[in-house]
Each structure stands twice: as structure tokens, then as C-alpha cells.
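Project outcomes to date are best conveyed with an example. Our students and postdoctoral researchers have been running inverse folding experiments weekly, and each run begins with a structure described purely in C-alpha cells. The record below, which covers 170 residues, was selected by the lab manager from last quarter's runs and is presented without edits.
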């Protein structure tokens, strides 16, 4: 149960992290982007806890069981790929890496969409019987990806300070 909750927490944090850019574009407030890095790092921390919980509670630290588990549960491979991609993003999330990698940094951090797909596939294989919850998360993920497409991004109305003030009064 704990392992499942940590995995779900990882997915939720990933979705919240992905929502920061659309929120910034909608509101015009740069603070969303300042929070995005921290959320991404918390997402990585949760996935590490998820893996640690799996290793402790399911494998019982018995590494000889890993081969058996991989044959029985291929979603573990998908989850591990997602974890490795999140590791790459966590390691390069600092300003030094941004400067050092230049334009390649942005391309690397687009792995977040691959991570989202891997995470959703991982969850889908686990919850095969009850897809209602998975559909909710997949729909939110799809919406967040669509909101980042350039034709859609141009159509998102920005809230100016005047509009925000009048919205608060109403």
C-alpha cells in the first residue's frame, strides 16, 4: 500500500509540475516557474522513495528475486526507465547545468513528456482491473500536454493585472 501511494504521489507531483507553465502563461505570474524546479525535485524524491519501498517491502532486499519479478511484472522495467529519466532531469535541474548545456538543456528537459507516458503506462499495467482512476490521471496529463502545444499556447488568454483585480472583486 505504501509503495502504491508513493508511486501515485510521484505521478501527482509530476502532473502538478507540468501544470506550472500553463498557469504561468494564464496568469502572467513568474512565481509558478520558480516553484516548478522544487516540485520536480520532490517528484524525483518520491520516485526514489517508491523504488526504495519496492526494494524493501516487496523484494525484501533479496536481489535474486529481481529477475523473477522482471519476468512476471514488465511494468517494473517501464517504471525504472521513468526513474532514470527523472534522475537525468534532477541532476541537470540546477543553473550550472542550464548554462553548461545551453539549448540542449531544454531538449533534455522535454523528457518530462516521456516520463509522463512511462509513468502512466506503469500505472496502467498495475491497475488493469479498475481503470477509472487511471483515466482521470491520463486525461489530466493529456490536457497538460495539449496546453503546451504551440497553437494552443498562443490562444491561452493572459490575465493582466487589471483583469486579475476585477476577477478578485467579482
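After processing, the design step wrote out the following sequence:
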Amino acid at each position: 500500500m505504501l509503495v502504491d501511494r508513493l508511486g501515485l504521489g510521484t505521478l501527482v507531483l509530476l502532473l502538478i509540475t507540468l501544470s506550472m507553465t500553463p498557469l504561468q502563461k494564464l496568469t502572467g505570474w513568474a512565481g509558478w516557474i520558480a516553484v516548478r524546479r522544487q516540485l520536480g525535485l520532490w517528484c524525483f524524491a518520491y520516485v526514489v522513495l517508491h523504488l526504495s519501498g519496492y526494494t524493501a517491502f516487496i523484494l525484501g532486499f533479496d536481489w535474486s528475486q529481481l529477475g523473477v519479478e522482471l519476468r512476471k511484472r514488465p511494468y517494473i522495467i517501464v517504471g525504472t526507465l521513468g526513474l532514470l529519466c527523472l534522475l537525468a532531469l534532477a541532476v541537470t535541474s540546477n543553473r550550472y547545468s542550464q548554462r553548461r548545456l545551453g539549448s540542449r538543456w531544454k531538449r533534455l528537459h522535454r523528457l518530462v513528456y516521456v516520463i509522463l507516458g512511462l509513468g502512466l503506462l506503469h500505472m496502467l499495467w498495475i491497475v488493469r482491473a479498475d481503470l477509472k482512476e487511471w483515466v482521470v490521471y491520463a486525461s489530466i496529463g493529456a490536457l497538460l500536454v495539449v496546453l503546451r502545444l504551440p497553437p494552443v499556447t498562443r490562444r491561452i488568454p493572459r490575465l493582466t493585472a487589471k483583469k486579475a483585480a476585477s476577477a478578485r472583486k467579482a
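The chain is about 80% helix and 0% strand. The chain has a mean pLDDT of 89. The training component of this project remains on track.
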